[in-house]
Amino acid sequence: MPTGSVKLQSIKQLGQENHSYEVSDEGNVLFFNFRFATCKDILMMVVGCLCALLHGSAQPLMLLVFGLLTDAFIEYDIELQELSDDRKECVNNTIQWKKNYTAAYNLSALLDIEYEMMMFAFYYAGIGAAVFLLGYLQISLWVTAAAKQIQLIRKLYFSKVMRMEIGWFDCTSVGELNTRMSDDINKINDAIADQVSIFVQRFTTFVCGFCVGFVKGWKLTLVIIAATSLLLSINLLTGMELQAYAKAGSVADEVLSSIRTVAAFGGEKKEVQRYDRNLVSAQRWGIRKGLIVGFFTGFMWLVIFLCYGLAFWYGSSLVVDTKEYTPGTLLQVFFGVLIAAMNLGQASPCLEAFASGRGAATIIFETIDREPEIDCLSEAGYKLDRVKGDIEFHNVTFHYPSRPEVKILDQLNVVVKSGETTAFVGSSGAGKSTAIQLIQRFYDPKEGMVTLDGHDIRGLNIQWLRSLIGIVEQEPVLFATTIAENIRYGRPGVSDKDIITAAKEANAYNFIMDLPQKFDTLVGEGGGQMSGGQKQRIAIARALVRNPRILLLDMATSALDNESEAVVQAALDKVRMGRTTISIAHRLSTIKNADVIVGFEHGQAVERGKHNELLERKGVYFTLVTLQSQGDKALNEKARQSRSSPLGMTKSTLLQSKCFERLMHNAFLEEDDELVEPASAARILKYNTPEWPYMLFGSIGAAINGGVNPVYSLLFSQILATFSVQDPVAQRKEINSICLFFVVVGIVSFFTQLLQGYAFSKSGELLTRRLRRLGFQAMLGQEVGWFDDHRNSPGALTTRLATDASQVQGATGSQIGMIVNSLANIGVALIISFYFSWKLTLLILCFLPFIALSSGFQASMLTGFAKQDKEAMEAAGQISGEALNNIRTIAGLGKEKTFVEMYEAQLDAPYQAALKKANVYGACYGFSQCIIFLTNSGSYRFGGYLVQKEGLHFSLVFRVISAIVTSGTALGRASSYTPDYAKAKISAARFFQLLDRVPQISVYNDKGEKWDNFQGNIDFIDCKFTYPSRPDIQVLNGLNVSVKPGQTLAFVGSSGCGKSTSVQLLERFYDPNHGKVLIDGHDTTRVNVSFLRSKIGIVSQEPILFDCSIAENIKYGDNLREISMNEVISAAKKAQLHDFVMALPEKYDTNVGSQGSQLSRGQKQRIAIARAIIRDPKILLLDEATSALDTESEKTVQEALDKARQGRTCIVIAHRLSTIQNSDIIAVMSRGIVIEKGAHDQLMALKGAYYKLVTTGAPIS
Predict the structure, then answer these.
(1) Model confidence at 237, in pLDDT bands (50, 70, 90)?
(2) H-helix or E-strand spanning residue 609
(3) 413-439+463-634, superfamily in CATH?
(4) Are 588 and 625 in contact (CB under 8 A)?
(5) Is pLDDT of 24 > 50?
(6) Alpha helices in 424-482, H assignment, sequence order
(7) pLDDT classification of 204: cutoffs 50, 70, 90
(8) Rounded mean pLDDT of 354-370?
(9) How confident is the model at residue 870 (pLDDT cuts 50, 70, 90)?
């Protein structure tokens, strides 16, 4: 190995903790990737290497035979010429002068050329057979050995991942782990399987080829080496390719990430132009790259032809003038060096595979070597004899490892007494769920400790501790198996009787018995076949079957509708008896009857007591109760039995993230299986029609390039013919002219390669740019809801623009070039061969399909196998995916071992498939390597016959054979290009899908109503709405509210009650599912989108600025006209911004940084206000415009807003009541409907929800 051995930094003597197999002591200096090889594997790999060594020496061996064969032909030809001299005759196989000449001295015996060729044919066939066998062995042994090691690596990796603490999963995304388990381990496989043996084989050929050259003729070898060293310089230069698309990519990313801002200000067309401007550099670079590649390919061919010329010219002088070499030696040396150089080039891709394999292995082995901080499978720790169930938090401080800067718990002190029910309440993010996770020991506190009956839980055995705890979560996770199995996960080996008891206790028994298959009903992936209430009750049964001492209920009923809630709640009340129970809930109805209620705020327990005591304290609990009871009343008045979400959607973020993970997981599966029909080549070409002249010239270049290969065989055979010419002067002259001809061919080849490279890259890059622009334009034209789908996240879309668009060109220019090239190659070859000897040509044509097949075969073999591997790994992948997605549930149930065992059981199928693949692949490889030897064997044997019996000139034998064999390899090369083509067609199809999608709310179309005297009269009539990405959560529940022109409407309410949503409906980012939004009496769904948005200005809580100057950001407010600097300044003055800008060194040209990162929040906010003012909107939307500011800036910004509001219809959303007291209408929202509305004084007089909020001064968030 040229790479040398690698000293591993830390090999844990593997197997020490799990004693799965022996490890020798000197195991720490190994070639990195073979850590897990057993002795048997090592033996297989060594034998495989030996076979590869022998196989590698076969090609140079063949050269020795080839040299002798050439000499025999030339000798025979010279003798024929002797005989054609009428002064000589042949007697008993000896050429003599005729009698009447002076002396009768013998010349030499006439060769029996047919017999000689017979011998050579046997040599060839023998070498061919050996090559087949060696090729088969080297591949199958290595692949088999690799399969065993990979299986072991997969097992170790998965079992290690399952032992990691939860904090590790927070920092490592599940998607990443899934790719590691598939792709990275496959990369290791590539690096330690067939690639090693192929590398050894090619390297051996390289060494042996040079040896043949030096042994047979060192002078010529040195001359050729000097010339070919020019070729090495090329490879270096092509490696210097740059990435110029980055700039345009960052524009796309910025725009797609802030799509709502772009839509609100109608900046779509402007952004498309900005993107297109940035594409120019990428296009230029692509064309330059094509030129460079064309230049170097041309240069390479030029050098090769010059080498041929030089070698034959110098070599022939050694043969003819100094008689040092025979013609055969000349060929041996020349081809020896050539083969050596070629194989060195072919060996380099293997090094790439090694490198990427080692990179992947580093990551995988790092995980395998990592010791989990909380090892769930360890045997260590105490198990208490009896458990009372007192839990206490002592000064616990904690932050999540993934967000170390956010303190979640801050010196938390809580006592939970055994046998009592303690409720944790508080706003979201106060640390309630975190406290529960610490009790399960998913994390360890940074300071302080959690104790169970006075014992620090860090000293207890983890599996034992978790077996005491039953947990029911907000979004219970069920596994894809039967109901009974899901309940059995709670406690291994539980009897059916216990399962039924648990189901009865959880109020689940009746609905289970109503199902056709009862307890054997499958719940589907993630429990998808069950309703929320059913899932919840199965989860409760699962928790109960453990017979837990401690029951943790984390919002166990929040995701349910009222009916199921009552049932589940009843079940919970039944099972709480006699257990230590901690319940987190937002619905206060579920907590009222708890023994103790603990109020959380900012990671501390700020109050504790019973329901009535806490109401008198007017603290956290009070605020929550007030808002909620009002919301409940209003809802009950409307008597809506619709599924409503708990107190707005405070917890929905968590819920969302959990749903989201599930969705993500399912969608990842969809994404791959989302079968797009490959696009038709015709449609792709249609996008490329403007470039037809380039494609025409490119094709001409390609055709000439294709013809060059066969021309080479003409010249080559012509040279051999000259060696049998007797007259020295004529011989010299002929040699010189042929060498010159080589030079001419080289120069032509150089120019045509250049032409082909430039023309096709130009047409391809223009196509890529056109597609990128169209794609980006199509993306910006989609409705906002489309971007909520995680498959259309900014990251995914930008990669689509970057990769899909550039892959499409693989289906046009270069592909056409390749086809034309191959056709020309084969055409010219066949014409030459048939012209010179049709009989021999027909014989070789029988071999041609095999030659072409063998090279195409390998390509398709590998892709076919990759697909099979993927299918085989699918079952295992499903288990690992399910396990990683639900790691918290599995850890809570202590089921890690079960999943590891299930995974290992699934690994057998891929392993068997790999063994089968080893044999098939080995045989194919052997065949593809030996076919060329067999072809030569047959052709030269038949050639010998034709030369002897039909007087064919021997040079024609070489001419025909080399012409067809080179064209055969060209055929194979063309067929190996097809994967790119297929990829291109799929990329194109994905692209066309995007271009063809018709958005539900279209910005680009001019249809829709427009009217002149736009007033700004707004009415929401019974609007109901759910976000398309979360159809199960009703956000608006029948919103009714109206604003007259010039009035200010303020929305107040807890977060998630639908305030911002109503603003988005007004902007027409979404359309309501029911009811309508009217503006000046026009239904918004019928109004022209860009007209509507041009009348609305918006300032949001976190304003998004673009990475350009302050002036440009302000001008962004109106993209329909050119805006003068004076307007910008007057808008800035209105927004209290002007003075601050003038104080900056570059004034209005100051760049705000990406996302406005160079400015403070107050400054960004004022720029956003100026941007809204400049479009002179009739309607102004202020979405918590001042909430993120400190008091000082708030004042300034508030003044600016008050100025901006004059004479406009205004909708304000605010959390601070001080900011909205002077509004014309204040609407208090809860759960997606308005529960009170009126002016400040009216609402105060009502003494309802608003009054309580104002008087207690409680925050509304």
Answers:
(1) very low
(2) strand 604-609
(3) P-loop containing nucleotide triphosphate hydrolases (3.40.50.300)
(4) yes
(5) no
(6) 432-439, 462-467
(7) very high
(8) 82
(9) low
Topology classification of domain 247-273+678-837+952-1001: ABC transporter transmembrane region fold (1.20.1560)
* pLDDT at res. 751: 92
| Distance separating alpha carbons of residues 790 and 804, to the nearest angstrom | 18
pLDDT band at 20 (very low <50, low <70, confident <90, very high): very low
Residues 6+ apart with CB under 8 A from 1061: 1025, 1027, 1035, 1036, 1070, 1232
Query: Both tokens of residue 428?
Result: 């979201």
Range 1018-1256: architecture per CATH: 3-Layer(aba) Sandwich (3.40)
Tell me whether domains 247-273+678-837+952-1001 and 1018-1256 share a fold.
no
Token pair, residue 691, equals: 């470039």
In 239-326, which residue ranges form alpha helices assigned H by DSSP?
246-257, 259-264, 268-320
State the pLDDT at residue 19: 34
How far apart, in whole angstroms, are the C-alpha atoms of residue 694 and residue 759? 5
Element containing residue 30 per DSSP (H, E): strand 29-30
Query: Is residue 644 over pLDDT 50?
Result: no
CB 1188 within 8 A of CB 1103: no
1138-1141 contact pairs (CB < 8 A, 24+):
1140/1166, 1141/1110
- Whole-number Cα distances in Å, 766 to 681, 813, 818: 17, 11, 19
Please say whether the beta carbons of 158 and 882 come within 8 A.
no
How far is it, in rounded angstroms, from Cα 739 to Cα 719?
9
Annotated domain spans of the chain? 31-177+370-375+849-947, 247-273+678-837+952-1001, 413-439+463-634, 1018-1256
Residue 54's pLDDT band, with cuts at 50, 70 and 90, is very high
pTM over 0.70: no
Rounded Cα distance between 902 and 709, Å, is 57
* CA dist., res. 7 & res. 31, Å (int): 8
What pLDDT sits at residue 661?
39
Describe the strand order of the beta sheet including 1179-1183 as a list of residue ranges. Answer: 1096-1099, 1179-1183, 1209-1213, 1048-1053, 1225-1230, 1233-1238
> Where residue 80 falls among pLDDT bands split at 50, 70, 90?
confident
